[in-house]
Amino acid sequence: MLIPFSTYIVLNLLKVFCGGKNQRDEKDPAPFTQAELQLFLEQSQQMCSWTEQLILKAMAYAGLRLGEALAMRLKNLDFDKMAYHVTESYKFKRFKKPKFGKTRIVDLPAYLVEELKDYARYLQKENLKQGRGGSVDLLFVDPGENGIWPYSQRKVQGLVKKVCKAAGLAIRNPHDLRHTYATLLLMAHQSPGYVQKQLGHSSISITMDIYCHWIPGEGRSGLEEVLGAKKVVPNRVRNSHIFAYMKKRPQ
């Protein structure tokens, strides 16, 4: 049966848009090195608001997914235990459960905790100035939105691209900040099990599949000892066979 041309166009457009998401999901990680991350964050200080900087740091220093970072709320921060309870993700003006439907508690580095504490105080003062009271809920409200909404994922994607260009770095996407977090932890000999817990992967096999080649000591080192090469007798051709062959060769 012949398919109308208009239907053919629609089907191909669906392939492009539906397939595009899968291609993005399957894209190989492109983490920053530690030096590149430092350069990226220094450049963001010159170009971005404090709110925008902290969105980027939440991914780079806590391994949060972009939607999880955008949905951060003050009530989920535990300053004493230096941890954040990930309970939501945000996209297209909709809050939902994190990926795999699992909440988790993420350890935060001390310097990020201190900055978030200062930022929360700043938000409280701003709310009081504007007559909204001193309570703070969502941390990363976009001032360009109508109503109290976080930044859009698209806006942060564009922001990362601009900062990379200005810093002279290869273009990355926001998820590469999360990849950077994971690879830096693993390269510093943190256990894959701990990294899995921090990232919120449903199984350690996912963590290993993505990041195993960034784990130091994996692969070549100690290969001979593991395989017991010293106990193996080499398979060499006996000298008598070589001499017999040489005698038979025509002169």
Helical content, roughly?
40-55%
**Which ranges are low-confidence, i.e. pLDDT below 50, for 5 or more consecutive residues?**
1-25, 240-248
Strand order within the widest beta sheet: 1-2-5
CATH topology of one domain: hpI Integrase, Chain A
Give the biggest sheet: 3 strands, antiparallel
| CATH architecture assignment of one domain | Orthogonal Bundle
Structural class: mainly alpha
Cα shape: globular
Number of strands: 5
Can you count the helices?
A: 11
* CATH homology-level superfamily of one domain: Intergrase catalytic core
- Average pLDDT, all residues: 84
- Sequence of secondary-structure elements: HHHHEEEEEHHHHHHH
Work out the strand percent: 5-15%
| CATH class designation of one domain | Mainly Alpha
Q: Provide the gyration radius in Å.
A: 27 Å
C-alpha termini separation: 76 Å
